Amino acid sequence: MTAATELPHILVIDDEMGPRESLRMLLKPNYQVHTADCVEAGIKLLKEKQPDTIVMDIRMPGVSGIEGLRQIREIDPNLSVVMLTGFGALETAKEALRLGANDYISKPFDAHEMQQVIDRNVERTRAHRTSEHAAAEIKELNNRLLQQLAQKERLASLGQASAEFVHDLGNPLTIVWGYVQLLAKRIEKSDGADGAQQDPASVKELNIIEQNVRLCRELLTLWQSYGNVEASPPKQISVSAILREVLKGIASMASENGVELNATICEDPCTLLGDAVQINRAIQNVVVNAVQASAEKKGKVTVVCAQKDFYVDLRVEDTGAGIQPTQLPRIFDPYFTTKQSKSGTGLGLYITKKVVEDHNGSIKVESTPGVGTVFTIRLPLAAS
Known about the structure:
Layout: E1 9-13, H1 17-27, E2 32-36, H2 39-49, E3 53-57, H3 65-75, E4 80-85, H4 90-98, E5 103-106, H5 111-190, H6 200-227, E6 235-238, H7 239-256, E7 260-265, E8 271-274, H8 276-295, E9 300-308, E10 311-318, H9 348-358, E11 362-368, E12 372-380
Parallel strand pairs: 1-2, 1-3, 3-4, 4-5, 7-9
Antiparallel strand pairs: 6-8, 9-10, 10-12, 11-12
Helix pairs in contact: 2-3, 5-6, 6-9, 7-8, 8-9
């Protein structure tokens, strides 16, 4: 029996066996009945069983029903308590009501009346508990929403500060990059000139500097690229035209790495509302990754752009080493990269996914280790 259909629990506290057993037999068909012969034993059962209603005699030796009521209210203020009163104890019953009892019934009790009183009080307790549970859930949800709001406000402030930081860092980094390139050319020209030879240690150190400056520049470019998505007003752009532009720019890279680059592009413009720079960046990230993945095996990259009903599908397939199943769930995580070299930032696919989703699209990846990887970007077309 599930919790939803479990019979209500009734706790009967009475020092007299006769009324106690009569109540147990009367209520047994419709309730789970627990009995105690004193308040102390009843309090213990209350904590163990968490009953829906307690039926308790007012007059008992030792701890009275009135004192028992006070103890019960300290444990559970909303639990229904029905007091049993004997002949001539009406004033005591009224006192019990003032102290927090929910009902009282006189001995000897009528079975039908007792059943009605129990049903009413069980329903009252369960209504209170349902209300408390709902209030607790609402409070928890409200706290989570407040935390999320505070986090968004912090992120908004951080985003503004980050944008300013990226802008301020870009200029000196460009200067450093320029001097690194100039120094590299000077070292290259000096090799063999007047019998001079390159210092291997200096070349190695310069390569490390160049690699890390390139990494910093890529990081800045990616963050600037994503930062403009929300700020740029959407315009009608052609995915077909953007893809042709991307492939034209990557063709030489593919050729230099011995990668065969094939493309089938939809003749229709495949128009959508968005930011051309961002879509260009998203497509470029995926195609460049495919070329790099295929370079080691001198493999092939196949790009297909097709319009279907109300959306356009862009499929990029490579014949590289593939992605391990354990790595697939993290492929779009920030700073995660499968590239062996230190040139990868781990932000390319993260930014691509953000850009695609900001354009109400989706991106998925399928990969077979040793065979290759397929990325599919789906973007909604603009209403005609």
